[in-house]
């Protein structure tokens, strides 16, 4: 619904408050929905291809440990199956508090919408089934680093984790 208003002798339309509120709610819902599922032709291998243990900090010295199981995302649509990304499952904990926080995420080897030199890894955190934050960064053979974001209250902090062990399952 729009309302017609006159400003400076010209008439213009502006969206009603309810339309703005609806758009805002849809945007928030999309952000909280979590990582996008693999395409219909893509499947996540049921067995982990490797297990990674990391340690480091969030912000100015919040010490954490992270454990990730990495599974291949495989596209089966041609003569040969192709690995197109990685699926991450695991947990992390603050050294001071100790409780495990669930992690789930995905890495698209082609980047968002096509090829990329350094596509980002996005791993969301869940507390009691609710998405509460996300790690967005780069994962290589030695480290995982980037920005950690939380939603309530909204804040961002850098994180730096080094890989202490990477092994087959």
How would you describe the overall organization of this protein?
With 169 residues, this protein is mostly beta strands. It has one helix and eleven strands; from the N terminus they run ββαβββββββββ. It has one helix at residues 17-32, and strands at residues 2-7, 10-15, 42-44, 50-58, 62-75, 82-94, 101-108, 121-127, 130-139, 143-151, 154-167. The strands form two sheets. Strands 4-5-6-7-8-9-10-11 form an eight-stranded antiparallel barrel. Strands 1-2 form a two-stranded antiparallel ribbon. Strand 6 (82-94) and strand 7 (101-108) form a beta hairpin. The N and C termini lie far apart (56 Å). The model is unreliable at 1-5, 11-17 and 24-28 (pLDDT under 50).
Strands across the major sheet, in which order? 4-5-6-7-8-9-10-11
Class computed from helices, strands and strand pairing? mainly beta
Put simply, the count of helices is 1
Q: Rg to the nearest angstrom?
A: 21 Å
Order of helices and strands: EEHEEEEEEEEE
- Percent of residues in beta strands? over 45%
The tally of beta strands, per DSSP, is 11
Kindly state the mean pLDDT as a whole number?
80
Instruction: Specify the biggest β-sheet.
Output: 8 strands, antiparallel, barrel
User: Rough shape?
Assistant: globular
What is the terminal-to-terminal distance?
56 Å
Quaternary state reads: single chain
Measured as a percent range, the helix fraction is under 10%
Give the uncertain stretches in residue-range form: 1-5, 11-17, 24-28
